[in-house]
Design brief:
- The structure is a single chain.
- This protein starts with 16 loop residues before the first strand and ends with a strand.
- The chain is globular and about 60 Å long.
- It folds into 2 domains: 151 residues, Immunoglobulin-like; 205 residues, Jelly Rolls (Sandwich).
- The strands form 4 sheets. Strands 12, 14, 15, 17, 22, 23, 24 and 26 form an 8-stranded antiparallel beta sheet that branches. Strands 13-16-25-18-19-20-21 form a 7-stranded antiparallel beta sheet. Strands 1, 5, 6, 8, 10 and 11 form a 6-stranded antiparallel beta sheet that branches.
- It is mostly beta strands.
């Protein structure tokens, strides 16, 4: 069973900075560690690169073994621009055991981050001798420009812990229409009635999945390679209005799946089969402004439990707030973390495996990005 650490789902802060050599305030932690073949190693931290109107929040930094040879060959950094100026990350320099390694490079040539935007910055190598092991010391320098003019650079050394929880990355796609279509993402309508039953529109804009229509929809990864039992599913969500957004998991079809959502609307009128053949739509009745776990079984929706905490998401806050969601699915236990804090844990045994996806109940203009599936 995966251990849950307070502050981030399955990500444990076990590293301490030894020395910073940059004048810019920052914390960038990239570590190598013990892993089984194909495992991901995460060192969680938060830090800020800042000067005048330039602020980048850096978190969820890690090393992954993508090739399955028990060596780290992939760096992933989640970066949020919380300043008012755009920024560009143009280079990454990796030093292993005191030697700069030229075989590491950014996955893409340039990463532009607009104000209030969150992106994944990734560095890769395909050279076996450049991959990192648990005994290596890794120092990373991230370089770029603020507003296209002012250059920034940060270099940070970290100590290597003896043990870090490891979770293999199963899926972390480049969000584009062609990629998601080829991977097996499918739109599923939940209501054929006139109430939220118009044309279904899901678009890919700026590497984000955008629910453009005021409809009741699921967007599901229906790929037999991802018929999952135990896993971690994470994504950023930007909320376009006050209606329900969330995840579905262990999805069988539109008549059978688990769901977890947040809404400021009571959704009491949703538990109605749209045209006599549509399934019931996830509903929460009085549990508004809370996180709610539930399930649809043979077309009928019911609530498993609602969170004790309320008021954590602001309606119609897209462009102002980016919310980080993670769920751990481990046998019959489901754990939700939001913004790094564990919100709730529930248990149910109705479905043992299935697909994952996103849920939007009339949540027009809501967006999903930076999605990652990991092995639990």
């Amino acid at each position: 069973m995966v251990k849950i650490y307070k502050g981030r789902l399955t990500f444990q802060t076990l590293v301490k900075a030894k020395r910073s050599v940059s004048p810019i305030i920052a914390t960038i932690l990239l570590v190598a560690l013990t892993v089984a073949a194909g495992a991901i190693i995460w060192a969680l931290t938060q830090g800020i690169l800042s000067s005048s109107n330039f602020q980048l929040l850096i978190e969820n930094v890690g090393v992954a073994d993508k090739s399955g040879n028990d060596l780290g060959d992939f760096f992933r950094i989640l970066v949020t621009n919380i300043g008012s100026d755009p920024a560009e990350i143009r280079d990454v320099i990796v030093e292993i055991n005191g030697n700069e390694d030229p075989n590491w490079s950014l996955r893409f040539t340039n990463y532009t981050i607009q104000p209030q935007e969150t992106i994944s910055v990734e560095a890769v190598t395909v050279v076996l001798t450049s991959m990192v092991s648990r005994n290596d010391t890794v120092i990373v320098t991230v370089e770029g420009f603020e507003n296209g003019v002012n250059r920034f650079s940060n270099r940070f050394e970290v100590s290597i812990p003896s043990i870090i929880t490891a979770n293999a990355i199963l899926y972390s796609p480049d969000i584009s229409s062609s990629t998601l279509t080829s991977d097996g993402w499918v739109t599923r309508r939940l209501n054929n009635n006139t109430n939220h039953g118009g044309s279904s529109t899901i678009s890919i804009i700026n590497n984000k999945i955008v629910m453009e229509s005021n409809n009741d929809l699921l967007f599901v990864l229906e790929n037999s390679s991802f018929t999952l039992a135990n896993f971690i599913f994470s994504s950023n969500i930007e909320w376009g209005d006050n209606d329900a957004v969330g995840f579905v998991f262990r999805y069988q079809d539109v008549f059978n799946y688990y769901w977890v959502l947040y809404t400021a609307d009571h959704l009491s009128n949703k538990n109605v089969a749209g045209d006599g053949s549509s399934p019931h739509i996830p509903h929460v009745y009085g549990d508004t402004d809370k996180f709610v776990f539930g399930k649809v079984v043979d077309g009928t929706s019911s609530v498993i439990a609602a969170s004790q905490t309320s008021g954590l998401m602001v309606p119609s806050s897209k462009g102002t707030y980016v919310y980080s969601w993670s769920i751990l699915i481990d046998e019959t236990t489901f754990v939700l973390e939001f913004g790094g804090d564990e919100i709730m844990s529930v248990s149910d045994s109705t479905f043992s495996s299935g697909y994952i996806g996103f849920l939007s109940i009339a949540a027009q203009n809501s967006e999903f990005s930076n999605l990652v599936i990991q092995k639990a």
